[in-house]
Structures are given as structure tokens and as C-alpha cells.
Amino acid sequence: MTETPFSVIGRRLPRLDAVDQTTGRIRYADDLTLPGMLVGRQLASTHAHALITSIDTSRAEALEGVRAVLTGADLPITYGILPISQDENVFAVDRVRYVGEPVAGVAAVDRETAERALDLIDVQYEPLDEVVTLDQAFDDDRPLIHGEGFGKNVHRSAALEFGDVEEGFASADHIREDIFSFGGTTHAALETHAALASYGTDGRLTLRSSTQIPHYLHRALEKVLEMPPERIRVIATPVGGGFGGKTDPFSHEIAAAKLSMVTGQPVKITLTREEVFYTHRGRHPVLMWLKTGFRSDGRITALHFTTFLDGGAYGSYGIATLYYTGALQTSTYRIPNYRFEGVRVFTNKPPCGAKRGNGTPQPRFALECHLDKAAHDLGIDPVAIRLRNVVKPFSMTVNHLRITSCALTECIERVIEASGFSGKYGQLPEGRGVGFAIGAYMSGAGLPIYWNDMPQSEVEVTVDDSGHVTVRSMATDIGQGSTSMLGGIVAECLGLEPDDLTMVTADTDLTPIDLGSYSSRVTFMAGNAALEAGVRVRSRVVAAVADELGVNPGDLVARGGRIELADEPGSGTTWSEAVRCTVAATGRPLIESGSYRPPELAGPYRGSGVGISPAYSYSACVVEIDCDRDTGMVKVEQVWLAHDVGKALNPMLVEGQIEGGVYMGLSEALFEEHAFRGGLHRGPSLLDYKMPTTLEMPPVECIIVESDDPEGPFGAKEVGQGPLLPVIPAVANAIHDALGVRIDETPFTPDKIVAGLVDLSRGGTGRVGPKAVPDFKFPPLTRVEPPEGFDAR
Amino acid sequence: MTERAVTIPINGEGRQLLIPENRTLLEVLREDLEMTGTKHGCDLGECGACTVLLDGLPVLSCLVLAREVDGRSVTTVEGLAGDAGPDELQTAFAELGAAQCGYCTPGMLLSARALLDENPAPTTGEVREALAGNLCRCTGYVKIIDAVRLAASRSPE
Known about the structure:
The complex is a heterodimer.
Chain A: H1 18-23, E1 38-44, E2 50-56, H2 58-62, E3 66-71, E4 95-96, E5 102-108, H3 111-119, E6 122-127, H4 134-137, E7 154-162, H5 165-170, E8 174-182, E9 194-199, E10 205-209, H6 214-225, E11 232-236, H7 251-263, E12 267-270, H8 273-279, E13 286-294, E14 300-310, H9 318-327, E15 338-345, H10 361-378, H11 382-387, E16 395-396, E17 402-403, H12 408-419, H13 421-424, E18 432-442, E19 457-463, E20 469-473, H14 482-494, E21 502-505, H15 522-549, E22 556-559, E23 562-565, E24 573-574, H16 575-586, E25 590-596, E26 616-627, E27 634-644, H17 651-670, E28 676-677, E29 680-681, E30 700-705, H18 727-739, E31 742-743, H19 750-761, E32 767-768, E33 782-784
Parallel strand pairs in A: 1-12, 7-33, 10-11, 14-15, 20-21, 27-30, 31-32
Antiparallel strand pairs in A: 1-5, 2-4, 2-6, 3-5, 7-15, 8-13, 9-10, 9-12, 13-14, 16-17, 18-26, 19-20, 19-25, 22-23, 23-24, 26-27, 28-29
Helix pairs in contact in A: 10-18, 14-15, 15-16, 17-18
Chain B: E1 3-10, E2 13-20, H1 25-32, E3 51-54, E4 57-60, E5 74-75, H2 88-96, H3 105-118, H4 124-130, H5 142-154
Antiparallel strand pairs in B: 1-2, 3-4, 3-5
């Protein structure tokens, strides 16, 4: 064991809620009940695209035990997670846009009565032509999903150029073009969404919900219910799996609130598993075309990347996702000239949104497979071509991303060594193969979702006269361990153990702001706020004790429950004595706060708010597979993943995130398909929606790399999303190494692999994937000068 | 709906209930007895979150009618710990970080308990086999499998 200056940071500590989790005492949203609670249910649209010509709720209202029935007319104000996409209603108004869209809601004394009431609501529809595929969305003769009349269902498009791409291609020795497709996937967290609303006689609303974003949900409630924010309290309950699936304000949350206001009784709505599939907000299906210029030694001279996103029926995070499909290609590779064109369309399917990696796994899959192919073209090793292009630490990218700490090269070298890649690649027996890929992700979005100048995270530390410490933060634990992370940081500052502390989290009445658990922002941002608050408390206590003892404050440390002289363990005073001394000396309570606001990072162009982050994590991955030639079945033998997390605050939790990211990457590579037949979901159940069980999950070797980020709390960066990114292309590259086929479309199911083998046997290339992209006219390019000092050579 | 009187020993304590014929064991546990440690993830027998032990064997409580378990013993996560303290599995799951969001954990613990009762020293393959009906979306199962093995190694036998 290496010497560490820390007592808590870097230790493999159990989560603070581990005992509650393993004894069944932890209470998720659906575990909660209140006296007099009603059950809420929602009626789902049976049409993918239709006008609502009438809704008759009279028979439902007359049913004994029904307390309220609501329809779109009762909640006419629109909402949405992004200020620029306020396009949703709690219940459809005049028109439904996907099968499963909520049309009405009821509150009744029990579930059976509520469900019977739904059956008694008479909705008359006038079907419209469905818009389901990309081609249909670009068809001028299909009805507009948002708006009147006919035309292309384009939600938003973007076209940016950094540097001079044509010049870059002109100076290339080799140019390669490819087309890839990434299929839609969903989060499928084990906990279905649930919300419990309670409207009191004092005119105050409390909503307990399995949400990752209590603050944004609070704002949506304020808007749609037209209530002053101070009369609304949102409590995020422990979230039984998020992955981005609980980062939108949802119909059922606002519906539960309104039903409680109407009835004067608490109302709980718990989604069924089928409803969760319709609620969705999962990974966007993306079709991609890309073209890269290379020097003969593999150096990239220019990249042109084009994306077509199938967004589903509503905006959700879509505009951000669109820009994310173009933002982070430059975060791993030095690309001197870069053009991004992208378009997101509306279709009559459940809305896509943010899933782990929001908008970045799709282009990462394309780019990493494309580079593998280019390496073959150029006769270069796939590892060497990456090493030749990796970004340098503390540099700017052509699209104005500020790179700080970056141990990408070390990640690559260590994963290659641990996996024995070089001795296996191209050398394993037929059917066996290894694949390699890399990735990078943000440690939090540099800008909040709605424009404001305030900190993104604040933490308050209160110490009572006995020395007991309470930490308050709105950071929301979705299983990633954010509460334990915050407790660890404050405990480290104060020389205490994390389980000495009381943690109060994710409650808009009781805790200061944190914007939510999305974009891998919590460790970096709330962690920094906790560090600042902890240091401030310690400074006050140390100053008071130094004064009392007549020593220099610089000689004192907080350690092992004492404030003592650094070189004299056991000297000084106990923590509780020190706290009493501090409060007595200053005459005011021992309460301090800290906050975090990212530096100003946005570049000089529209869209530059997406992709900027105070720090980036880096990953490198090797996957080894065994593939059956006859059936096309892929068995993953092992995965090695090296991740630059800056500093592992708790290595056990960091490994957990890496293992979980590897799992979800393998799942999306080989199993998951959020697929539709027309506007109908092909299988909204956990049996039909395939995902790995214990039998399919291979061993994972985690390699934690620490680059000690200068701005991260104790040097830490993110780990929740980054490790997923390289896994998917590494599987694709391994399939190529094993069988010589190229599956350029996720998931890599046996039928596609067999099709590739058949093509190979007939003298083809063995490629399976999309062959063309829609003929869409992107807007004129916005040309952006590279940042000052950018080295274009 | 006709109701039926049943007596179900749950975690060693006989519970007398009057239940509709169509009520599932999961509904009885979570809604009638407010024992919410047992989770629901699909209500269709797909995910394993609602796993409990019935006469020592794992069952999906969302698929079991409560009327069928009259007189049979049920063990839930609330009953795993004994007088001597937590089950080795509970300790190992907490210690190794085998729970992330924790939602699949009660079902995992009970499937694992049934395995160790029958096979106190399972191989990794046997652990994988025994837990294959319990889905987890957070952990990739890595630390769950490690925790079951650790608990087995610490068990008295």
C-alpha cells in the first residue's frame, strides 16, 4: 500500500446506505405511502399519430371510488427539460404523437378502480399518416408532427466548420468514407418511475419522485401548475437506477401533483414496466456518414462528420443530443480541421432523450470503427494510429474545448499491456478476436440547462454544539454513490469518518442547489462545493483551537476525530471540544457553505455550450470475444478497461461504475434494441428487450489511472459515463478481428454476423450496415476560427 | 372478488390475512403488510426483483398467488438477518459494493441465499447460474458474484 496524505479519500469504503440497501430498509418512491393516499393511473394513446376529436370522461367520473379525472384541457401549459423545447403537455392536447402517450389521468381509491375508470374514458381519434422512419421524416408529403400541414419533420439542424476541411482533405495522403448506424436503446432501470404528490391544506405541494433532477422538476411544476416556487417542495427519493431515464420532468409527476391538488388527498402514480418503455427518453438512433483525411503515417488532416438523429415525438434533450453527436470527436484526437453537420427529426415514436453518454456513444462507435478500417488501409497498427493522434494534456481543440488533465496515452498503454492485445491481434484462431477503442467524456456540462449566472452546486455544512456534522446538498443519489462521495469529502476535510455525518440530500426545501445527476457532473461540481464548505469549517475550527492553545494554525490538522499538532498525534483537542471552543470564541453557529461554478469555457459560436466541461475523463478498452461461425453468436471472454478518473475518491465505487459502464456497453453492442413495427413498440417488456444476465457478463479488469486534475476535488474527474463509450466499437473491432466481417450497425446480432460471413464467402467485403444517408440539405456552414494559439500542423 | 383466509408464516411469524383470490404474494407483502423490502420491476416474472423464498426455494412473488402459499413459509429480505446479526450475504454485499442503486439487491440476496443453503461452496459458474434470473442494470454483476463467493467462503461449514 502506498503512502497517502488522506484518511478517507482513496479508501475502499462501503456506501453510506449499504446497510439500508441490503436489509430492505431503503425506501424508493413506490415504497412510500401516506394516509388517505389515492392511486393514480394514466390512459395511454393507442395511436401513433391521430387527432383527438373528443374525450368523454363522464362514465369514468361516475364510477364509485373515482376521485378525479383529468385531460389535456386541465393542464394546457407546455413544458420540457430544455427551455428551447417546451413542447410537451401532461396529457395530449388535440393530438397524440406516439403510442403510449398519456391522454388522461385518474385518481381512485385503489388500483383496480383506477384501471376500470381508464376503460370507461371514451377517446375518439381521427388517425393521421404516421411518420416512423428517417426517410418518412424527410418526406415532404407526410404530415408535420408539430405544426399544421405537410413537410419535412426537421426539429433542428446544425452545420459548423472549424479550420478548413477542404484544405485538410487536399493535404491528405489517404481519404476514407464510411456510413454507420446506431440503433435506439432504452435505460430499463429496474425501478419503474414513481411519484407521490401531497397537496396540503396550507396550499403547499410536496412531490416525492424517483427523479435525477429535483431542481428542474421543481421548475416544471412551477410553470405548468402556475404555482409560486416557494409553495412547491420536491424530494428526490433514492433512485432505483437512472442512466438518464429520469432526467426529464415527466407527465406522471405533474399529473400526480395536479390530481392531489384537485382531490385534496395524496396521490401516487407508479408506472408499469410497459409504460416505462413508452416514457423512454433513451438513446437516439443515429445514422452517420464520415470522411477523414490521413497522412500516410496515420495523422488526421481533416474530419467531416454528419449525423441524422431520429428523435421520436418530442424535443426532450434532443437539441443538446444533436450537438453532442458532433462535439466530443475532438476530445480524444487532435483534428486540425473539422466539419460537423447534423439534423434531428421528429417521428411518431416515444421521445428519445439522454441515456448514459447522451449523444456521444453513437459517433464514438462510428469514429473508432472507422479508424480501425483506416489503420488497415494504411497498414498501421490500430493502437499506433490512435497514439499518433491523441490530444495533448492542457491544450485546446479546434472546436474550442479546453483540455486539462489527460492520461489517455497511459490508459492506452496500460490496457494494451494488461490484455496482451499486441500478441493476440490478428493472431488468434479463427472465431476468436480482440478489439480496441478509446473514448472521453465530460466531468459535467459546462453550462446549466437554463441560462443563469449562479453556481451549479452548493453544499452546506452545519455542526451542532456536540460536534455532530450535517451535510446538505441537492445532489441526487441514483446508485452512483453521490451521497457517499460528498460524505467522504467532508469527512476528509474534518478528520472524521463518513458514517459520523448526517447526509441530507435531494430536497428542494432543505438543501442548497445542485442541478442534478446528469452529464457526470456531481463528483466534480458538488464535490468541489463540498470541499470548499469542508475547508471553511475546518479553517474556523483550526483558527479557534490555535488561538486557544497559542499555537500556529498552520501547525494543526484535523485527523482521527481531533484537532491536533501535525507532528504530535494525540495532542490538541477532540473534535467536539474544538467545535464548542469555536462557537464560543466566535459567538455564531458553525455553519459554512461552499459552491462551484465552472469557468467560462464556451467558444465563440452558437452551439458551443455543448461539449464544454471543466475536465474530461479518458478511457481505453480491449474486448476479447469468441464467435461461433455457424450461428453468429458472440461470446465475450473478457474486457479490460483503463479509465483516467483523475483521482479515485473511492476505488470500489469507481470500479463499480467502470464495470457497470462495460456491462451497458456490451448490452448495447450485442443485445438491446428499442425497435418498432410501424408506430408500435416491438416488445415493451424485459423479456423481449434483451440484456445480459450473469451468464453473458464476462470478467472485467478495471485499470484505474489517476491524472490528478488540477481543478477536480482532490483531483477527481468523472467515471459514470465515460467507460461505456469505447466498449461498443471495441466489440465491433473484435468481431472483425475474429471473422473478417464488419458490422457497421448496432446491435451486432447473430443474423447480421451470419449475413456478413455469407457475403464474405461470396467474394464480398463482409460488411453489413447502411449503404446511404438521406439527401438532406444542411444549413450553410457557420465557419469558426480555431482558438488562438491552436497548432494546426 | 371472493376473499379467502390464509395464514402465511413470513420470516418465522404467522400472519393471518383475508385476501382476494387474485392477489399475488408480492401485493400482499408490499401493500397489505407494508413489507416494501421486496421490490417489483415488471410484475410479469421477467426481472427477478421480487424474488422471495418459499419453503426455502426462490420464487417470483409477482407470479405467485397468495392463496397458494397458505401455510407455507416465506422468507423476505427483512427476514434474512438472524438473532446473531446480518446474513453473511448482506455483509458481503455491503462490504464489496455489490449494490449500486440497490433495487435488485433484495431479490439477488434471496436467490443467493437459496443457492448457499443448497450448495455452501459454489463455483463462480454455479453462482452465475443461480443468479441468472435476477437482472441488474448497474453493476455488470461483477461485485455481486464476488460478494456471493466471499459470503460462501466465510460461512461456518
